[in-house]
Amino acid sequence: MPIKERVGTVVSNKMDKTVVVTIENRSSHPKYGKIVVRTKRYKVHDENNECQVGDRVRIRETRPLSKTKRWAVVEILTKATEA
Question: Residue 35 and residue 37: Cα distance in Å, rounded?
Answer without folding.
Answer: 7
